[in-house]
């Protein structure tokens, strides 16, 4: 993966935190690494952890978007597994050096747990394409070896931080430069900003090399010609989806050779219904797309899934309407609470198509278990209600 590091720009940074912000922007500006508010970065200096604040866009982050916290106090929290998540987040918030600082990232404890000055966390497409398969451990061992041991899927927060700490302490070697987070992404680290940044790109490069060797090369960059879809078909679908949601939804239609080919896959019913490559994508795309044009049946199945995984916790908070529809008639339709979020859902699912396609070329694509995805929908969702109420306006970013 080609580095965009600029020595002049890096040397012009007046502080370590300014350099941290610079390298964060390098990562955040690449959509194959980070999408819509995802990803987080940190810096440790003088017993202070500076971590990206929740909701900050990594592509635009500045020094003031990082939250300073007491590093020793954070590490103490890692040793208390009895704290419920809500209480733990309050305790983390209490570690802030300045009470008015932004809410720290959900992954704050992960950053605190690792013994490096610089840490990067991204949802890199190529890494997900390697790891999101039934034989994850074997694929990752072949692709990354001891450079990046695999951490089994854990929900964001304390559970993931403790799992990363345990795997690092057990499996890291002198060659280790990161960790692969199953069904989640990648962490890279280093003692300097340049090393940590380069280690992330190195791991993505190793993923690309593995995929190339296994018949899943990086897609050739092309300017695809849109194929007009029948507006009567898509308009009727949008009306049905809006009715299922209980409020009007905007629509983004993407009819290209890629989306049409995906819609015509012989294994579409298998691959598309596994779930997204990382649970966070579901807050925009829902867990699975509509693939048979039957919105009412989809809504029944989705309500069953929500009840099965969340009980009554989802009532009034998550509707059962699809946000993605796939069909040979139009390729891809994405829906959102407004035009901005319809476009966000479309872009995310286009990345998901790429990841699922490449993963399927070397293994059997797998997502996280449905209960994990449902938990992400519940805990990270809610932005649509805020936008409809006028509390938030686009472009809002994800809360992780």
Can you put this structure into words, describing what you see?
The chain is α+β, with helices and mostly antiparallel strands. The protein folds into two domains: 7-213, Class II aldolase/adducin N-terminal domain (L-fuculose-1-phosphate Aldolase, 3-Layer(aba) Sandwich), CATH 3.40.225.10; 231-388, no CATH class. It is built from 17 helices and ten strands. The chain has helices spanning 7-11, 16-28, 71-77, 85-93, 108-113, 125-131, 136-144, 158-171, 193-213, 231-245, 257-263, 268-271, 282-285, 295-310, 339-362, 370-380, 383-388, and strands at 40-45, 48-52, 66-70, 118-122, 150-151, 178-181, 185-190, 250-254, 324-327, 331-336. Strands 3-2-1-4-7-6-5 form a seven-stranded mixed sheet. The chain has a three-stranded antiparallel sheet with strand order 8-10-9.
What is the residue-mean pLDDT, rounded to a whole number?
93
Structural class: alpha+beta
Strands in their spatial order, largest beta sheet? 3-2-1-4-7-6-5
CATH homologous superfamily descriptor of the largest domain = Class II aldolase/adducin N-terminal domain
Rg on CA atoms, Å:
21 Å
Q: Which CATH architecture of the largest domain is right?
A: 3-Layer(aba) Sandwich
Tell me what portion of residues adopts beta-strand conformation: 5-15%
Number of helices: 17
Q: Summarize the helix and strand pattern as letters.
A: HHEEEHHHEHHEHEEHHEHHHHEEHHH
Beta strands, count = 10
Q: What number of structural domains do the residues give?
A: 2
Instruction: Indicate the low-confidence ranges by residue numbers.
Output: none
Q: Quick one: CATH class of the largest domain?
A: Alpha Beta
Question: How much helical structure, as a percent, in the residues?
Answer: 40-55%
């Amino acid at each position: 993966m080609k580095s965009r590091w600029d020595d002049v720009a890096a040397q012009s940074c007046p502080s370590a935190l300014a350099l941290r912000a610079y390298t964060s922007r390098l990562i955040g500006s690449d959509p194959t690494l980070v999408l819509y508010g995802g990803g987080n970065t940190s810096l440790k200096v003088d017993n202070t952890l500076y971590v990206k604040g929740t909701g900050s866009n990594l592509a635009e982050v500045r020094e003031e978007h990082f939250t300073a916290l007491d590093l020793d106090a954070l590490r103490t929290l890692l040793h208390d597994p009895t704290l419920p998540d809500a209480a733990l987040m309050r305790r983390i918030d209490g570690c802030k050096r300045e009470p008015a600082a932004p809410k720290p990232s959900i992954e704050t404890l992960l950053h605190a747990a690792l013994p490096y000055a610089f840490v990067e966390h991204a949802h890199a497409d190529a890494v997900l394409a390697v790891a999101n398969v039934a034989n994850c451990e074997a694929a990752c061992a072949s692709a990354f070896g001891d450079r990046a041991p695999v951490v089994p899927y854990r929900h964001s927060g304390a559970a993931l931080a403790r799992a990363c700490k345990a795997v690092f302490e057990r499996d890291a070697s002198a060659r280790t430069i990161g960790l692969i987070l199953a069904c989640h992404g990648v962490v890279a680290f280093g003692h300097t900003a340049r090393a940590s940044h380069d280690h992330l790109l190195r791991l993505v490069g190793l993923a690309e090399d593995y995929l190339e060797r296994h018949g899943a090369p990086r897609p050739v960059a092309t300017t695809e010609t849109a194929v007009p879809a029948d507006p009567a078909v898509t308009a009727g679908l949008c009306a049905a989806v809006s009715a299922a949601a209980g409020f009007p939804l905007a629509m983004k239609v993407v009819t290209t050779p890629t989306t049409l080919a995906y819609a015509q896959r012989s294994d579409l019913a298998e691959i598309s219904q596994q779930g997204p490559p990382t649970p966070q994508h579901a807050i925009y795309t829902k867990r699975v797309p509509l693939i048979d044009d039957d919105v009412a049946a989809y809504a029944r199945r989705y309500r069953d899934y929500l009840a099965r995984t969340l009980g009554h916790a989802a009532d009034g908070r998550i509707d059962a309407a699809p946000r993605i529809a796939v069909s040979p008639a139009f390729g891809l339709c994405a829906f959102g609470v407004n035009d901005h979020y319809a476009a966000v859902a479309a872009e995310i699912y286009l990345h998901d198509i790429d990841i699922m396609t490449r993963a399927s070329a070397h293994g059997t694509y797998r997502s996280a278990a449905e209960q994990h995805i449902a938990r992400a929908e519940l805990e990270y969702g809610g932005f649509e209600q805020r936008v409809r109420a006028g509390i938030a306006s686009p472009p809002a970013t994800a809360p992780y």
